[in-house]
Design a protein that fits this description.
By secondary structure, this protein is an alpha/beta fold. Helices cover 53% and strands 14% of the residues.
């Protein structure tokens, strides 16, 4: 049986391409049909509907934007749902709330299917390079069956326990990512507005202990004011909201996250939602301009 992959967006398309190029017998579907054409060229079968993917595949990866898109692909809430998931392994790779995933797990198992959480850490470039990091949760047998299939997409996988612990791990990692990139952007803005040599600032940063794979990816984008998307600001805002909701549900303070939440909200409100997350620079610059005397 083929492996299914539904959702060929900024992340999903390169992930599925890596599967196809590794020789995985793949059947794919995407709402925007043009996104499927590179998969066809790589040897994957392009399905005419999500239902066809489930008919042909025993394991189906879902890399979709949100709850609604995931439910739609599964036919959840309709008589089609049980037919699609029974005797299949559903691998949920998108970033949704832990509560949503817990409910989906229960529904899939009640319909005779198997469910694995497998959110990934990384953006478009690591996805293209097959260098994502996956976090897995679910019944151990199902997790171990899915794990080898992730090899073309991920350089490392971690088993996190029961659902929804993989998504909680992903949100924990994203909290650090969001605050780190926002801090880098604010530091760049500080150096820039003090008239420092921006290239030298980034060279000093890169030579020191704060340098990281993330800083080396994002710093050149700040220098060039290159806002081409790797991780969209609107997606970062969504992740910020999910983390904040999980923090509030557990009675946790999240002071750094809350500041970032406001800044990314302003970034999206200014019309930069489809720009890369370093476009938070626009919101920081706008605050500077508002604070200056006229």
């Amino acid at each position: 049986m083929d492996v299914g992959f539904i959702g060929l967006g900024v992340m999903g398309q390169p992930m599925a391409l890596n599967l196809a190029r590794a020789g995985t017998p793949l059947v794919v579907w995407n709402r925007t049909a043009a996104r499927s054409e590179p998969l066809r060229a790589a040897g994957a079968t392009v399905a005419s509907s999500p239902a066809e993917v489930f008919r042909r595949a025993r394991v189906v990866f879902l890399m979709l934007a949100d709850d609604a898109a995931t439910d739609s692909a599964l036919g959840r809430g309709t008589p089609e749902f049980a037919a699609r998931v029974a005797r299949r392994t559903i691998v949920h790779m998108g970033t949704t709330s832990p509560g949503y995933s817990r409910g989906l797990d229960a529904d899939v198992r009640a319909a005779g299917g198997t469910y694995v959480e497998a959110p990934v850490s990384g953006s478009r470039k690591p996805a293209e390079a097959g260098q994502l990091v996956a976090m897995l949760a679910g019944e151990r047998e199902a997790v171990e069956a899915v794990r080898p299939l992730l090899a073309p997409m991920c350089r490392e996988t971690f088993v996190c326990g029961a659902v929804p612990d993989a998504l909680l791990m992903k949100l924990s990692v994203n909290l650090f990512l969001i605050t780190m990139v926002t801090g880098l952007t604010e530091a760049f803005h500080f150096a820039d507005r003090h008239g420092l040599d921006r290239r030298q600032f980034l060279a000093v940063l890169d030579a020191g202990p704060m340098a990281s794979g993330v800083s080396r990816m994002k710093a050149p984008k700040l220098l060039a004011r290159d806002f081409a998307v790797q991780a969209a600001a609107s997606d970062v805002l969504k992740n910020n909201r999910l983390i904040a909701e999980a923090a509030r549900a557990a009675g946790l303070a999240s002071p750094l996250l809350d500041v970032c939440h406001a800044l990314f909200g302003e970034t999206v409100e200014q019309g930069h939602g489809r720009s890369d997350m370093v476009a938070v620079l626009r919101a920081i610059e706008a605050r500077t301009e508002r604070g200056r005397p006229t």
